[in-house]
């Protein structure tokens, strides 16, 4: 009987083949990691942009609501812009409890950087309280060191909104947009001796410049038209 000869032992991988395989695996891992990192960065940027858009939308909605609610009291200023702060006399938002308050918008520096901020007084009922709130709003705009949300004079509120590099205002008067400034004094009206001391503009144009970053950037223009003019309130 013929004896079977043993087969040759199976040959294993050489050192060079192992090194090549390890190098390919390392390259694939690196490519996969960079892909995941790019996806994560894109997701973060999209979330930051979405958050910035929502914040800006809420801010502009509040801006429009303040302008829509401007009210005229006896011998007061319903609106005033001095190149730094916009002050408004507006109705309260609670229809069940009618009230009046002063609102101010300004660009201020704080612990969170340069931001557009909004100040609001407590509701009041007398002209002396209006004058106090009106003066406090001007003082608030001059105080660049106050942190948003901190205690402010009179128990008012101070809210930090969106980062803004600069902002400009224009009034719509005599069928054209002009840089906002001191409004003309209203002529005495014997039929309405308790009217406001200045005339409201027919519209207010807001131009803000947003800083570059991961969220929004560039220049944004927002127009508001007084409802009684017969045009949409804002655009």
Describe how the helices and strands are arranged.
Blueprint: H1 15-68, E1 79-81, E2 85-91, E3 100-110, E4 113-120, H2 127-142, E5 157-163, E6 166-173, E7 176-179, E8 203-210, E9 218-225
Antiparallel strand pairs: 1-2, 2-3, 3-4, 4-5, 6-7, 6-8, 8-9
What would your notes on this structure say?
This protein is α+β, with helices and mostly antiparallel strands. Strand 8 and strand 9 (218-225) form a beta hairpin. The protein is elongated. It is built from two helices and nine strands; from the N terminus they run αββββαβββββ. The strands form two sheets. Strands 1-2-3-4-5 form a five-stranded antiparallel β-sheet, with helices on both faces. The chain has one domain. The protein is 30% helix and 27% strand. InterPro entries: N_methyl_site, Pilin-like. Keywords: Membrane, Transmembrane, Transmembrane helix. The chain crosses the membrane at residues 12-33. This is General secretion pathway protein J.
What is the gist of this entry?
The chain is an alpha+beta fold and 235 residues long.
How many strand elements? 9
* Main β-sheet description: 5 strands, antiparallel
Class of secondary structure makeup: alpha+beta
Distance between the termini: 104 Å
What's the SSE pattern?
HEEEEHEEEEE
Computed over alpha carbons, the radius of gyration is 31 Å
Helix segment count? 2
The percent range for helix content is: 25-40%
| Low-pLDDT regions | 146-153
What is the count of structural domains?
Answer: 1
Shape field:
elongated
Q: Which sequence of strands runs across the widest sheet?
A: 1-2-3-4-5
Strand % is 25-35%
Mean pLDDT: 79
Keywords: Membrane, Transmembrane, Transmembrane helix
Protein name: General secretion pathway protein J
Pfam families: N_methyl (PF07963)
InterPro entries: N_methyl_site, Pilin-like
């Amino acid at each position: 009987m013929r004896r079977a000869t043993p087969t040759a032992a199976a040959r294993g991988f050489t050192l060079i083949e192992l090194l090549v395989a390890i190098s390919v695996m390392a390259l694939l891992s690196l490519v996969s990691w960079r892909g995941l990192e790019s996806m994560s960065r894109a997701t973060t940027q999209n979330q930051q942009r979405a958050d910035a858009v929502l914040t800006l939308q809420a801010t502009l909605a509040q801006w429009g609501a303040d302008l829509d609610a401007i009210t005229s009291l006896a011998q007061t200023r319903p609106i005033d812009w001095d190149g730094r702060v916009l002050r408004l006399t507006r109705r309260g938002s609670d229809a069940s409890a009618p009230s009046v308050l002063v609102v101010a918008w300004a660009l201020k520096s704080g612990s969170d950087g340069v931001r557009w901020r909004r100040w609001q007084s407590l509701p009041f009922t007398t002209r002396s309280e209006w004058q106090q709130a009106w003066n406090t709003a001007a003082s608030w705009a001059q105080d660049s060191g106050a942190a948003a949300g901190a205690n402010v004079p009179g128990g008012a509120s101070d809210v930090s909104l969106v980062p803004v590099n600069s902002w400009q205002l224009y009034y719509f008067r005599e069928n054209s947009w002009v840089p906002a400034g001191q409004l003309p004094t209203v002529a005495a009206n014997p039929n309405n001796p308790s009217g406001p001391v200045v005339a409201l503009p027919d519209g207010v144009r807001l131009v803000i410049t947003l800083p570059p970053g991961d969220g929004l950037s560039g220049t944004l223009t927002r127009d508001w038209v007084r409802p009684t003019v017969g045009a949409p309130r804002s655009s």
